[in-house]
Every structure is written in structure tokens, then in C-alpha cells.
Amino acid sequence: MSIEKLKENYPVKIRWIHFPLHPETPQEGRTLENLFPGRDLAPIKKHMKGLMADAGLPFGDRSHTYNSRFAQELGKWADTQENGEIIHDLLYKAYFVDNINISDIDKLVKIAEAAGLDGGAARRVLEEREFEFEVDEDWRFSKEIGVTGVPTFYSNDLAVVGCQPYDTLEKFVKHLMELQKESPV
């Protein structure tokens, strides 16, 4: 995966900022045909599968989109837990590969447990909306900086949008490192 390779080769720190992707989607989800009425989804899926393959990511045959708000709140909480960052890969796989409804609290608790996190604590965090404010702040920030799609790689008011091959992300990181050399903090 491109991000992991970047972390191995460069002193980068990843911080997840969440974005409201189709926030109007109901908990039960929507079919992709309903989300994109009248569009031929076969070429879109083929294109996405190719982009993901270039980035070293698996991509399944998704049939639905689901509201990601609870998954984002779970991710924010997981980031506060020791080794919690693994949750992001598991949420990606659940959504993009396994077509799992990531707005279902029971399914999210199972994902948290698979990440080695406390399932009871994960359930409490979701049911009591303990990280609602933090995700609201992420949504505000992502709107403020002009995020229009995911993933977006952002630093120093520069952004790379979309699933990109490693070479593109490496050029971005090298450019940021050059900028830092020119004007150290």
C-alpha cells in the first residue's frame, strides 16, 4: 500500500481527517444504481479497480454505499488507542472489499475487535457519540481547505486528491521536504 511504503521510506506522519462523503445516505445504505441513476457502473468500477490496484489496494464488487459517519467516529476513537490505527485498513476493507454496512454499530464493533480494540468500549463510543464533535471539526476543516474527494493528501496548503500511485505521492512528499528545507520551522 502506498501510504505504508511512504512511511517506510520517508519521515511522514499520517493523521486522518474525515470528510462527509454522501452524508445523506440512510443507515441501511443505498444501491450504487440509486446513487448514480442512469449511469453505466461497469466502466466506473473497472476504473476504480485499476486505480486501487495501482495503489496496491484490494477492491471488491461493491453494490452499495453506506453512511460512513459512525465509522469515522470509530476511527477517531481508535486513533486515541494504542495501535488503533489498524482500524482504518479494516474499515477500508469492510467497505470497499467486503461490501459491509459500516453504519451498523454491531458490525463496527466486530471490526474494532478484529483490530484488537475493546468491543465494549467501541460500542459505548458509538452509542454515546463520544467523538461526534471531533468528526464535526474534521468535516468543518475539510470543507475549509476545499476537500472534494477521498483520499486527499494535504500539507502546507498543498493537496493531492484521489487514489494515487506511489510515485505521485512520493513526489508530493519530496516536494514538501524541499519546502521545509527552504523555510525551516
CATH topology of the domain at 18-145: Glutaredoxin
Derived from helix and strand composition plus strand pairing, the structural class reads mainly alpha
Overall average residue pLDDT: 90
CATH class of the domain at 18-145: Alpha Beta
Distance between the termini: 30 Å
- In terms of DSSP E residues, the strand content is 5-15%
By CATH's scheme, which homologous superfamily of the domain at 18-145 applies? Glutaredoxin
Order of helices and strands: HEHHEHHHHHEEH
Low-confidence stretches: none
The CATH architecture of the domain at 18-145 can be given as 3-Layer(aba) Sandwich
**Spatial order of strands in the largest sheet:** 1-2
Specify the helix fraction band: 40-55%
Main attributes?
185 residues; mainly alpha; Glutaredoxin; two-stranded antiparallel ribbon
Description:
With 185 residues, the chain is mainly alpha-helical. It has a domain at 18-145: Glutaredoxin (3-Layer(aba) Sandwich), CATH 3.40.30.10. Helices cover 52% and strands 6% of the residues. It has nine helices and four strands, in the order H-E-H-H-E-H-H-H-H-H-E-E-H. It has helices at 2-9, 32-35, 41-54, 69-78, 86-97, 105-114, 119-127, 132-144, 166-182, and strands at 30-31, 64-65, 152-155, 158-161. The strands form two sheets. It has a two-stranded antiparallel sheet. Strands 3-4 form a two-stranded antiparallel ribbon. Helix 1 (2-9) runs parallel beside helix 9 (166-182). The chain is globular and about 50 Å long. 22% of the residues are buried. The model has no long low-confidence stretch (mean pLDDT 90).
